[in-house]
Amino acid sequence: MIDKYAQPADLQSTLIAVTQPTEKLSAKDELREVAEKFEAIFLNEFMKQARQTKLADDIFGSSAKTTYEQMLDREYADQLSGKINLGIADALVEQLSKRVK
Known about the structure:
Elements: H1 9-19, H2 27-52, H3 63-83, H4 88-96
């Protein structure tokens, strides 16, 4: 039986990771954490779109390779979002911190 309400695996795992209970953080710390995860999701989507741009057909392509590349891109996005500052998380925190008490 197919679950028609199931979300794609990458989105579902990201949402699970975001909603996992952690130690008690202040509202601003939670906002920063979520903004950084959003930045990682943005990077993942960026890399996914870049990988879809192909100049030629891959003669050795398979669904296993595609799955591996998706997992690798997700890990790259998580690592990059922690090491480089795109400014997306900072902009989100600055804009939304006015609403957080």
